């Protein structure tokens, strides 16, 4: 029987039932082709290619469009942990950082490890009410990696503003399927190898708020040569940082951004709204099937991630049936993305019995 179509169409032909985008996404065919060509090019032209910056600049612009922020407000990086360490270093000594309990370690650990920062954690649902005078930063994920719960972002943002705190949003589990506006937060980071379908080694940091707009940028503590205003004159000695967010760029992994340009271009063509509708419809179909089997998944409808207690033991059986899925915290975690279809949902439910 012919498989029902996914939103991604011919860009994806997985040989598995792939339901693990919360761990890493699949590469579109166009991205894989661009990577193969770049690898072949590197045989003669080196691992920075013939044009080191073209794919990176195009990726920056594509990410900016997806999150509705000017490209000059976006920096390129390699990991969420590095960007979190940068944000931590921008805070004054003794600053209080508020975060949800059990959020992803790449977001939280750089604050916990930074000397002089006081990290306070509360349950996710209590985050907005826990902001208080003296809170310098609220750091949280838009969507929880463990179970797919979506934060009350507007409430947290307004509570932070009321107390003069900055906001740091980790959009790694949200960017690409959940509509977001980076301008609504002071810092927005996204590891792009999950829902944004990019190779590992691609991470973006967007700056909202007033930073760089009448308020000085934080110090560019990890600035290398690519962060200079005049890149050609920034190879030796202290550099003059770029006037925009490029001052926070890391020297990027060239091949990763060659793939990222293509993957982000595909998402831009499809539109986040269409991906959101597709993903959540599949997730809701799966929730309904679980409920018919007497199971109670988390979270409530609206998330593309569905995590279910009591059935984590099915992971091995599903793996043997070529279903790619994950277990986190004793929960069987299914993540539905644009390359999935109702066939995938129905097959998973049938295998679960």
Name its key features:
seven-stranded mixed beta sheet; alpha/beta; three-stranded antiparallel beta sheet; 15% strand; 353 residues; 12 strands; 10 helices
Structure write-up:
The chain is an alpha/beta fold and 353 residues long. The chain contains ten helices and twelve strands. Strands 2-8-7-6-5-3-4 form a seven-stranded mixed sheet, sandwiched between helices. The mean pLDDT is 96.
Helix count equals 10
| E-strand count | 12
End-to-end distance, in Å? 21 Å
Q: How does the helix and strand content classify structurally?
A: alpha/beta
**Spatial strand sequence of the major β-sheet:** 2-8-7-6-5-3-4
What's the helix-strand series? Answer: EHHEHEHEHEHEEEHHEHEEEH
Helix content: 25-40%
- What portion of residues belong to β-strands? 15-25%
Low-pLDDT runs: none
Q: Average pLDDT across residues?
A: 96
The geometry reads as globular
Q: Sheet bearing the most strands, described?
A: 7 strands, mixed
The radius of gyration over CA amounts to 21 Å
Fold blueprint:
Blueprint: E1 17-18, H1 29-45, H2 54-66, E2 74-77, H3 80-89, E3 96-100, H4 105-113, E4 118-122, H5 127-130, E5 135-141, H6 153-162, E6 166-170, E7 187-191, E8 203-207, H7 254-270, H8 272-292, E9 305-309, H9 315-320, E10 323-324, E11 326-328, E12 331-335, H10 342-352
Parallel strand pairs: 1-10, 3-4, 3-5, 5-6, 6-7
Antiparallel strand pairs: 2-8, 7-8, 9-12, 11-12
Helix pairs in contact: 1-7, 2-7, 3-4, 8-10
Describe the structure in brief.
The chain is built from ten helices and twelve strands. The protein has helices at 29-45, 54-66, 80-89, 105-113, 127-130, 153-162, 254-270, 272-292, 315-320, 342-352, and strands spanning 17-18, 74-77, 96-100, 118-122, 135-141, 166-170, 187-191, 203-207, 305-309, 323-324, 326-328, 331-335. The model has no long low-confidence stretch (mean pLDDT 96).
């Amino acid at each position: 029987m012919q498989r029902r179509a996914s939103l991604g169409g011919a860009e994806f032909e997985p040989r598995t039932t792939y339901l693990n985008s919360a761990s890493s996404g699949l590469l579109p065919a166009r991205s894989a082709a661009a990577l193969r060509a770049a690898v072949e090019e590197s045989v003669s032209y080196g691992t920075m290619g013939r044009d080191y910056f073209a794919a990176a600049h195009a990726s920056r612009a594509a990410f900016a469009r997806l999150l509705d922020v000017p490209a000059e407000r976006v920096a390129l990086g390699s990991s969420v942990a590095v960007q979190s360490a940068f944000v931590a270093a921008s805070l004054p000594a003794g600053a209080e950082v508020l975060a949800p309990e059990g959020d992803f370690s790449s977001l939280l650990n750089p604050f916990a490890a930074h000397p002089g920062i006081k990290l306070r954690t509360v349950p996710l649902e209590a985050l907005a009410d826990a902001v208080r005078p003296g809170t310098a930063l609220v750091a949280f994920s838009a969507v929880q990696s463990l179970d797919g719960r979506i934060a009350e972002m507007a409430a947290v943002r307004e509570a932070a503003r009321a107390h003069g705190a900055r906001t740091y949003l980790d959009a790694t589990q949200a960017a690409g399927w959940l509509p977001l506006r980076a301008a609504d937060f002071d810092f927005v980071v996204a590891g792009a190898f999950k829902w944004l379908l990019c190779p590992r080694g691609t991470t973006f940091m967007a700056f909202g708020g007033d930073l760089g707009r009448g308020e000085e940028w934080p110090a560019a503590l990890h600035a290398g040569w690519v962060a200079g205003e005049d890149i050609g004159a920034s190879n030796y000695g202290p550099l003059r940082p770029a006037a925009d967010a490029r001052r926070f760029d890391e020297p990027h992994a060239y091949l990763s951004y060659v793939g990222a340009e293509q993957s982000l271009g595909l998402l831009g063509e499809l539109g986040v709204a269409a991906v959101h509708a597709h993903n959540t419809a599949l997730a809701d179909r799966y929730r309904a099937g679980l409920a018919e089997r007497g199971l109670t998944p988390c979270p409530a409808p609206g998330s593309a991630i569905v995590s279910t207690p009591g059935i984590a033991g099915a992971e091995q059986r599903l793996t043997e049936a070529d279903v790619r899925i994950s277990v986190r915290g004793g929960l069987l975690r299914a993540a539905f993305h644009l390359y999935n279809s109702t066939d995938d949902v129905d097959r998973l439910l049938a295998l679960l019995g």
